Amino acid sequence: MELVFKKTVSPDVLEELKLNGLDPLLEPDIIAEKLKSHVEEVAGERLLGSLHQFILGADSFLAVRNAFDPGALGDSPETFFTSGTTDWYPGAYTTLAVLAASGLHPVSFHSENRGELIVNLTVIPGVGRKSDKSRKELRGHTDACSFPFAHEFDPEEGVSPSPDFVVLIGQKNQDKVPTCVAPLSKILKEMPEWVIEELKKEQFMIGTQGLFDIDYVRDDASILTIHPDFGYQIRFSHSHVTADPALHKATSAIKKLEAATQKCLKDVVVNPGDILLVNNRTALHGRRTVCDAKTKSGGNTRWLQRLYANLESTKGLAVDDTRPFCLAPESGWVG
């Protein structure tokens, strides 16, 4: 699904927020309130209606084109952390207002990237797992896959639900490296019924993805579930979901799911000024190869940013009084 803003929010309006010292990492609600009417004005009723239909499940992803003007940017960052610079603020401001106009609220997790609300997706210099992963293809996953579905959430467990939506902000992408999205509706059509039934069984082990600073595995978990209002939902990671090798049908079902996902991936280029919303319950998302190991970081290498967003009905455990959007589990938590 794709929507195009006929014009962007006035750069003067965005610059005023910046001059007033409003920090997207700390004051997302204030920013959203100040900008929401401006976004609604440039978007128009028809686009806003389509945006609300998407949130209600009309599609698994939505590309909002020409949402903001990135303006003059410095070199692409070489770290996940966004604090300390401000050239990326216009995209963040606009995105927070788009989320507010959609009825979504931004969230972060204390155990991931220090709980920062917005993180960089960019080429990390050096050698090792983080650097390699920042360059290579990602085959398709849901974020925070070991966390509960929203309707599974139990405050006593101490783990907030995985996010409802993953939101990408386009800052730089001169090589037009695609993000890949595989809608669950299409994946289901590629799998026989017995595979779907296996994936619904609570027989899988789901480990926590590497950016989360916790030691936690969700045992006896299902990969697929049926939400009472939204239908089929999924959580998955190619490298963090396993089954007991003795459960032959379960291990085979994982392989069938992986194969089906690759057939259903659709390339979506997030250009500078674009915002991509991916439903983290009804789509797997990944990325084509960004660059090889010889390519230097920084400069004009691909630079997207990411934040999470939830429906108002999705509850979690806030753990930071200064950042009410920052949810459990806390860094270092052991489940």
Strand portion: 15-25%
Radius of gyration: 19 Å
Specify the overall morphology.
globular
User: Into how many domains do the coordinates divide?
Assistant: 1
- Identify the CATH homologous superfamily: Clavaminate synthase-like
CATH fold field value: Double-stranded beta-helix
* N-to-C span: 38 Å
Q: What does this protein structure show overall?
A:
The protein is of the alpha+beta class. It has one domain: 4-Layer Sandwich (Double-stranded beta-helix). It is built from seven helices and 17 strands. The protein has helices spanning 11-19, 28-58, 89-102, 129-135, 184-189, 193-199, 248-264; strands at 2-4, 61-65, 104-109, 119-122, 138-141, 165-172, 178-183, 204-207, 217-221, 224-227, 231-234, 241-243, 266-269, 275-279, 283-287, 303-311, 326-327. Strands 1, 2, 3, 4, 6, 14, 16 and 17 form an eight-stranded mixed β-sheet that branches. Strand 10 (224-227) and strand 11 form a beta hairpin. Helix 1 packs across helix 3 and helix 6 (193-199) packs across helix 7. The longest helix is centred in the N-terminal third of the chain and has 31 residues, at 28-58. The protein starts with a strand and ends in an 8-residue tail after the last strand.
